[in-house]
Amino acid sequence: MGILLAIQGAVSQGVLWGIMAIGVYLTFRILDVADLSVDGSFATGGSICAVMIVNGMNPLLAVLLATAGGVVAGFVTGVLHTKCAIPAILAGILTQLGLYSINLHIMGRSNTPLLRVVTLFSALSDATGIPLAWVTLSLGFVFAVVLIAVLYWFFGTAIGSAIRATGNNENMIRSLGVNTNMTKILGLSISNGLVAMSGALVTQSQGYADVKMGIGAIVIGLASIIIGEVIFGHKLNFAVKLASVMVGSIIYRTIVAVVLQLGLSTDDLKLLTAVLVATALTIPVLLEKRRQMAGYVAVPKKTASEREEDSNADD
Amino acid sequence: MLTIKHVSKTFNRGTINEKKALRDVNLHLEPGDFVTIIGGNGAGKSTMLNMVAGVYPIDCGTIQLDGVNISRMPEHKRAAYLGRVFQDPMMGTAADMGIQENLALAYRRGQHRGLGWGITKKEKERYAERLKILGLGLEERMTSKVGLLSGGQRQALTLLMATLKRPKLLLLDEHTAALDPKTAAKVLEVTENIVGSDHLTALMVTHNMKDAIRIGNRLIMMHEGHIIYDVAGEEKKKLKVADLLEKFEAASGGEFANDRMMLS
């Protein structure tokens, strides 16, 4: 029974963290940039949300405000990367580092518990009488489905297509009149907005915000993306790709829940995640290599037309 | 149409790698001019095209296009007026996007890109019509990823993209140099057809002297950042490859003879 409950919790967590993973997907796969601001902006989302709720703000409004905070963080990374020509990885690390102090300032301390306050989940649970665990799960799904629909629409628009093209061939899209600094900044802003939104929802679900809650978020995001790709493959419609990231996130959380139930110490969780991502990245490479090696034959098989030529030669 | 006045460009100024790529270049193009540009490696041919396109800022001088001074306009703004095809077939298209998506990106060149659809049904029909010009059967594969196409097909597609929205000036930077001879001839043929039927003004860099003589109505030769020879009309038609080699040698004081193999 314990393990089933743990898995239900894991699925809820997977959905809420999956929104963060979708944000990582937008930069890592679409913009082709490894954005490390995520670890900072996730905690920024949580911090803003917690402080606002403690100060009596509507919990949904707090999520939107947290999202806006993430957009600003992404904007800063974007400006550092484009206008200041700092390599993307370093620009992200700088933002992440700076955000640590900013997050402490937002909360005024390192941890803000949400005690005896109304969260999105508790409000809905009280209003409907549905148990909190199920509310968390279903509300998380609603958020995820709406987000995937909006992103699917956005990346089909003229500006969304220009962002996709920026990640694909920057020189080409610039020669077609697109300011690629603008598309990169926009992409990073949207991505970090989603990450902060996820941080805000996770904060409301776990009942506290912590300045360290974002550590390793980028790796968890990558793990979700890669697990999704390993299971669903690459040749997919965009909406299905986003959904596969979400499924990847749920599977990741389930794996974590199971190994914790089996007695793994939470101290080892980050190591487990790192090993999981490294393994998931390695396996497709090794499989492809093996496939190519296994296809080797010393004497090539003759094609039908060659056999015909041979028989003609015999005549 | 295009007026280049006293344009110079030095790369890595003040360092040991200083390279004077363009020295006081002056050029005027009439509407409908199709100019071929030849010259040895490092003559400044590609640099001149890149200066017109705004890839790097110029050191001095002015570049006017159809009465507009574009000398200091950023690259993405000039793109509204220019169609460009590059030497590398990989450069002009987005490999992970479909053929029709690439065309739709090109169709919006120089326009505001907002929240309207990235591609409409009506456009798709138009693109299919345009793709038929190429005669490669690409109109049957509109949703295929461009990365699946061969270099020649990609280059032909890039050419179509560059001219989908009529450019004031078409810049072709050795756009057939990376293709095999047969494919190169095909892409050149399409180039001539499109430039002719749409009455485009074009600059084409090439290493093939025969093509340079045969194609277009005007030919310019560059050497060490200068335009050293400029010929048009009947005089150009009568040119022979040997004449061009002679011009090269005269201009470069004989040193050019070493490059003769590569250019003939």
Main β-sheet of chain B, in a few words? Answer: 6 strands, mixed
Number of strands of chain B: 10
What is the percentage of strand-forming residues of chain A?
Answer: under 5%
Helix and strand composition category of chain A: mainly alpha
Can you describe this structure in just a few lines?
By secondary structure, chain A is an all-alpha fold. Chain A has helices at 2-31, 38-54, 59-82, 88-107, 120-128, 132-154, 158-168, 170-175, 180-206, 217-232, 238-261, 269-294, 304-314; strands at residues 111-113, 208-210.
Task: Give short descriptive properties of this protein.
heterodimer; A: 315 residues; mainly alpha; two-stranded antiparallel sheet; globular; B: 264 residues; alpha/beta; six-stranded mixed sheet
What does this protein structure show overall?
The complex is a heterodimer of chains A (315) and B (264). Chain A is mostly helical. Chain A contains 13 helices and 2 strands, in the order H-H-H-H-E-H-H-H-H-H-E-H-H-H-H. In chain A, helix 2 packs across helix 9 and helix 5 packs across helix 6 (132-154). The longest helix of chain A has 30 residues, at 2-31. Chain A is globular. The longest helix of chain B is centred in the C-terminal third of the chain and has 17 residues, at 181-197. In chain B, strand 9 and strand 10 (226-232) form a beta hairpin. Helix content of chain B is 36%, strand content 23%. Chain B is built from 10 helices and 10 strands. The relative contact order of chain B is 0.18. In chain B, helix 3 (99-107) runs parallel beside helix 5 and helix 5 (151-164) runs parallel beside helix 6. Classes of the chains: A mainly alpha (315), B alpha/beta (264).
Helices and strands, with pairings:
The complex is a heterodimer of chains A (315) and B (264).
Chain A: H1 2-31, H2 38-54, H3 59-82, H4 88-107, E1 111-113, H5 120-128, H6 132-154, H7 158-168, H8 170-175, H9 180-206, E2 208-210, H10 217-232, H11 238-261, H12 269-294, H13 304-314
Antiparallel strand pairs in A: 1-2
Chain B: E1 2-11, E2 19-29, E3 34-39, H1 45-53, E4 60-65, E5 68-69, H2 75-78, E6 82-85, H3 99-107, H4 121-134, H5 151-164, E7 169-173, H6 181-197, E8 202-205, H7 209-214, E9 218-223, E10 226-232, H8 233-237, H9 241-252, H10 260-263
Parallel strand pairs in B: 3-8, 3-9, 6-7, 7-8
Antiparallel strand pairs in B: 1-2, 1-4, 4-5, 9-10
Helix pairs in contact in B: 3-5, 5-6
